[in-house]
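Structure tokens please, single chain.
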Amino acid sequence: MNRLTRFSKASYYALAACLLFLLTGWMFLARLGIQNDEALFANGIFKPYAVASVLRIGHSRLPLMLMSYLGTLKSWIYRPVFQLFGTGVHAMRAPMLLAGVASVWLFYLLLRRVAGKRAAIIGCALLASDSLYLLTVCFDWGPVALQHLLTIAGMLLLVRFYQERTLGSLAGGCFLLGLVMWDKALAVWILGGLGVAALTVMPRQILRLFTLRRVAVAVLSFALGALPLIIYNATHQFVTFRGNTSWDTSDIAGKARLLRGTAEGSALFGWLNLEDWQTPQPHAPSGAIESASAKISAVAGHTRHSLLFYAFLLALLLTPLARGNALRAILFALVTMIVAWAQMAITANAGGSVHHAILIWPLPQMVIAIAFASASRRFGSVGIPAVAAVLLVMMISGLLVTNEYFALIVRNGGSQNWTDAIFRLSDYLRGTGSNNIFCVDWGMLDSLRLLSRGKLPLRVGMDPIGKRELTDADREYLDRIISSPGNLFLNHTKDFEFFTGVNDKLVKFAAAAGYQRELLTTISDSNGRPVYEVYRFVRPLSTSAL
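Here you go.
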């Protein structure tokens, strides 16, 4: 009975952490517009599919890969979700937030098996209050939410196999890690780290597990989970690995700074939200929650850095106090982190963004939790109050950073990536009855495809005008699309433009062909900033009269 009571008490703390994560995340769900990469998975749901690979089964076509390294697992999950709940922001973001909640709970279970209940409570509390873990999961433009969930679940099952020798746990863990690879092949970073850590930190324990049957179960289960990725590469000359493995060591220092910024929670300020100097018409807080957030932000001095980075450094100093399985678990997490980040650091066009760095999570929390729990046991009766006080301070620091993001988003709105003007643009375009809608900039097509459930006739408008030199075929194509009165064109205003000059180049081409740009409307965000322009090409009246 006492054992059951203690278990229930520890689980209660973990459930409280999960509830904290859910409630803080829920406040953000409808606060920003839909970012283009956040909506990318909808390309595997709404026809015509904009995907890298489909599997033909009779007359049906099953999307397998969105890109050479990005699978359609999320598309498969969301197809019934959208059928039931539509394509609003809550239907899109709530499932990934719930996946994040599940990952916090599974992390608790993992740490409890590896290092005991004290470390498990510390770890899940730290993860639940980590601002960038919350935001990257909630908005999931990486995508990262399923990566975290499946990786933690796979690790939990493999630890269970190690402890109990259950073949089902081995099969389930390897299957989930295979799914991780299909979901996003960049999972090879963390999986490679796990493999190196297992062979370096506990080689004898791992080798004792090897039998022909277990190896066969592990390989077949992993292959089953990664089967769509395997099929794609078998029919496309292994393009996933050939096309995404170029090396570049020129920005290792910058990637290291980004990793620290991710740990401190500061790395998304100014990218997720706009700053005060960019917002001439800020929103005043409305309602009790927004008002409380603004007051907390002011009283706390507009906190933009948590204490996680310093806690991690302290955990390294405390590591010698750990013994046995706790020490091995810390070393295992550290080796995994080092190997995973080293791959990011030397991979071209990777590792320099938060959605890459965050893939290492929750390993930093694992190191901190086990080191702090081990140290607390060395201080006798004062150990628990001391570590509880430290944990509370760290959680508050993380939540203050989260609150600062919320306060800034309420006041200033989203950045060019996250503008809420996308909703107004989608509503406007539904009533135009246009033949084709050409997006002459990045950052809107996939968002509009999702919001319209694939019903808008969207086209890429940067091809071929974005080329350095146009061929005769390119010119003929451009002449055809600008001359049709039923075609509309979208671009960002100068302050929100991604690919500068492409739209101007199209307008100049049309002018040389005798057409002028006719602005139909300008779409502003909720702060009154002009974000989108909708226009068409017409011949001037004087030219028509001639």
